[in-house]
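### Sample
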Amino acid sequence: MREAGVITLGQLVNVCGPRLDNAAALTRQAGIRAVRILNQLLEGWRHQLAASELELISKFCKGRKPASHDDPFLDIRLTPVLGNVPKSQLLLKNVQPVDSSSSTGKLMYNTLVKILNQRSLAGRVDTTETQRAEWRSLYKPPLTRRGRDLQGRILHGAIAVNRYLSNINSNISAECPLCDHREMVFHCFSECGRLSVLFLLFSQMFSPAW
């Protein structure tokens, strides 16, 4: 069908007519001899269309109904296929079919992301309520907004350190400017030797006096 140039409903109507019943014309267009199979295929497509949609197609072909942006769009249902990944996995157990007319954009996006990354998600453990509460604590006073944003970016690895900048600009070295280690996010904020004096000062400031 793709090679014959019949991949949209409009192209199919142009070949088979508004009632989608001219299987012979479709066999000539697609170069397929199995008329019985094409009849079954057309019948299945007709059943997928509502009576109002078939009437709309008929009026359009007769010139009585010009195309309009207000015309109803065909409802599309996406059924996820998980392959060999068991649905009992925590991050994949709630993956359900989504409909273009009733599902929200967020639900459709989350479903598509889970399906495309099902193998990497199969072994992951879902975040617990305790962990979610710990994340929320990063965005509460007395932390300033700037401090909250910085901590969130550090924990998500969203900091432009040299290790990542060197992939974009070959003139930038991936090494830390203060030592000979690669400048990763955690190296920059916790592992670099230049921070030892600062951490020692903090421990003296905040340690009990007794």
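The beta strands are 77-78, 98-99. This sample (Reverse transcriptase zinc-binding domain-containing protein) is used throughout the tutorial notebook.
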